Amino acid sequence: MKRTATANWKGTGKEGNGKLQTQSGVLNDHQYSYKTRFEDGIGTNPEELIAAAHAGCFSMKLSFVLNAAGFTPDNIDTKCTITLEGGAITESHLDVTATIPGIDAEKFAECVADAKANCPVSKLLNAKITAESNLV
């Protein structure tokens, strides 16, 4: 399987702007710029998109890991925070809260660690990956 996205940029890094488009059409000429990346401009930025990708990938992988261990989650909520420092993404922090009938905290933590290490986006990132989990 292959998925695509495209970016078009016009102008300088600080004064220019760009548009993003995804194969699915979810992003269709979606605006991004220096202001959306480093200030409070309206639009998206690469780090926000990576955070969404990591949260989504991790949540789905956690569901697969839980299922393989004999559990079916009622709900998994994951917030991902991407840190950009010195021109590099240095960390991706996952904060997960889940409702999973019949699981204990130790087994849940084991499943979170497995999903964190093995989701495809975690494997792609060359950054420190941390996670906090809360079982409700």
UniProtKB/TrEMBL annotation:
- Molecular function, one GO term: peroxidase activity
Q: Which Pfam family, giving just one, matches this sequence?
A: OsmC
Q: Which residues does the annotated region (Disordered) include?
A: 1-22
**What InterPro entries does this protein map onto?**
KH_dom-like_a/b (IPR015946), OsmC/Ohr_fam (IPR003718), OsmC/Ohrsf (IPR036102), OsmC_Ohr_Peroxiredoxin (IPR052707), Peroxiredoxin_OsmC (IPR019904)
Q: Which GO terms describe its biological process?
A: response to oxidative stress
Cite the PANTHER family for this sequence.
OSMOTICALLY INDUCIBLE FAMILY PROTEIN
User: Mind telling me what this protein is named?
Assistant: OsmC family protein
Q: Which organism is it from?
A: Candidatus Opimibacter skivensis
